[in-house]
Amino acid sequence: MESNNGKTFSVLRTFDAFPKTQAQYQQSNDNTSKKITIKTILFYLYLLFIAWSEFGSFFGGYLDEQYIVDDTPRETAQINIDFFIRTPCELLNVAVRDQTRDIFIISEKLNFENMPFFIPGDIKAIDNPKKVKTPELDELLSQAIPAEFREKLDTSKMIGSDNFDGCHIFGSVPITKVEGQLQITSKMFSPFDIGGIPADAKIDFSHVINELSFGEFFPYIDNQLDNTARLTNKPATSFKYSLHVVPTIYKSLGATLNTNQYSLSESISEVKNIGGFEAAGIMISYKFESLTVVVEDKRISFLQFIVRLITILCLIVYITTWLYKLADKILILIGGKKWSLYDDSPMKSKQGLLDS
After folding, report:
1. Where along the sequence do coiled-coil regions lie (predicted)?
2. Above 90 in pLDDT, residue 253?
3. Which of 107, 175, 179, 348 could in theory staple to 287 by disulfide, Cβ–Cβ 3.0 to 4.6 A?
């Protein structure tokens, strides 16, 4: 009896209900956990990058452009000009002719200063189209400083004034807001005077355009013809500019800027027969468009931003999960279950793709 009990206790002493895990099992689990940890960290870093990008777009906003019909009737507009012309002022005449064929002499409303003609150092284009750079909205608003032209100077008392060969014409003039043409011609042979070109006339319509804009005068906003020059050595030359003026409104963070932009086409021709239909000079045709462009810096509401951010992050997690499962299925089909991404068995780390 005692011998049987002794055998029973000896069997119980050798029985172990909780066998110890081998060292290689522990090592394999450590490697797997490290791999999972690295993948998890990289994944969360990617989600953090997406969230950071969305925060940047939320605070930075976006530009919204719309075209609206200008329903406010306006009878007049303002044109701002600042020209150097290689002709003495007493020989020049400035007029506006609109589509009703009415002619308005505006020389008295502008400032004329005799000067030695020269090309300023800040000229960006001579006899070539200027490269137009569209500024950022914040930069444009920072340049929108309204100003007025200075008073006329008496240059007749300056040294060498008798030999001045140029004229500085500048100022702001109201015009009828209809299609028209600004004409800078010579008093000797304008389209209203029939006759030949005087042999001794000091006429040269080479010119520098420092400013040509419409609406309120913002000297720091760069327009397409600003700081350009056109030169010629023939007195009977006609410079023709055709402008399509588009009212433009800029809005950003409560600030509003009303201005006018224009597209440009130009041509140069020599006038061979001075008459009532063609004249030498500078002809600037303009047409005001009925559409107004509204450029506004907008931002979505914070609630919309949160909903959008959560939606994007959840979609990324959802797609990543299914891609992970798809990759797992493909690996199982190619190499068997031992290559499953979800297989944490210790033998997986010891076998390669060619192992049986």
Report:
1. none
2. no
3. 179
Give mean pLDDT, residues 89-97: 92
Q: What's the confidence (pLDDT) of residue 213?
A: 96
Which amino acid, one-letter code, is at 239? Answer: F
Q: Residue 169 forms beta bridges with which residues? A: 83, 112
Q: Give Cβ neighbours of residue 220 (< 8 Å, ≥ 6 apart).
A: 143, 144, 145
CA distance 87 to 197: 14
Strands 166-176 and 111-115: antiparallel
pTM (whole model) above 0.85: no
Look at residue 233 and give its three-state secondary structure. coil
Q: What is the pLDDT of residues 260-287, one digit of tens each?
A: 999 999 999 888 765 556 788 999 999 9
* Amino acid, single-letter form, for residue 64: D
Distance (Å, whole) CA 93 – CA 159: 26
DSSP state of 121: T
Look up residue 68 and give its amino acid: I
Per-residue pLDDT tens digits for 332-354: 888 777 777 665 555 444 444 44
pLDDT given at position 14:
54
pLDDT value of residue 188: 67
320/313 Cα distance (integer angstroms): 11
Side by side, the strands of the sheet bearing 166-176 are 111-115, 166-176, 76-85, 207-214, 228-230, 125-126
Is the alpha carbon torsion for 172, 176, 182, 183 positive or negative? negative
Residue 288 to residues 98, 285, 292, Cα–Cα distance (Å) = 12, 10, 10
CA distance 24 to 27: 5
Round to whole Å and give the CA distance between 309 and 51.
7
| Cβ(176)–Cβ(76) below 8 Å | yes
Average pLDDT for 88-100? 90
CA distance 102 to 178: 11
Count the residues in the chain: 356
